[in-house]
Design brief:
The protein is mainly alpha-helical and 156 residues long. Helix content is 53%, strand content 0%. It is globular, with a radius of gyration of 16 Å.
Amino acid sequence: MKRYQKNLIASLLFTLTGCASSGNVAPAVAPQSEDQPAEAATVAVAAENANGSTSFTDDQADGGREVFRSQCTECHASSEFADSQFKFKWSRRHAGSLYQMIQTQMPETAPGSLTDEETVGLVAYILRMNGFEPGETELSADPEVLDGISLSSIRN
C-alpha cells in the first residue's frame, strides 16, 4: 500500500474514531490483540500525530541537543533551525523528510553515520526549537509516524 494511501486511511480512521466516540475520549491506540496486525497500531499512532499530537520528551530533545553540540556545531548554529529561512523551507514538509535528510546527509563529514536514536533526538530538538511541546512519550524513528507529523505549524 502506498504511503499516501496509508496516511489517508489513518486520517479517516482517526476521524471516524472521533465521530464514534460521541464526546467520549477514546484511547489514541487501541490495545493490540493477537488478531490485530502490528501495522494497525502504527497507522493509529501516525493518525494521532497527523492531527497535531506530536510526542517527544524533554530528555529526548536534550539528548538531541547534545548530539547537535558534538556533531553539528562545526558547520551549523542552532539558531538556523528556527529562523525564517528554515521555516520557509520546512513548513511544507513533515518530520519524516527532516529525519531522512539528517539520517542520509549529515554530518557532512560522515553522512549516514548517526544512529536512529541520535537522528530522532535531533528531530525532537529541532521540533522543540520550533515551538512543538514535549510530552511523555518519546518520538519514534518509525517513518510512518514521522511522516504523519506536519511541520506546517512552524510558519508562525
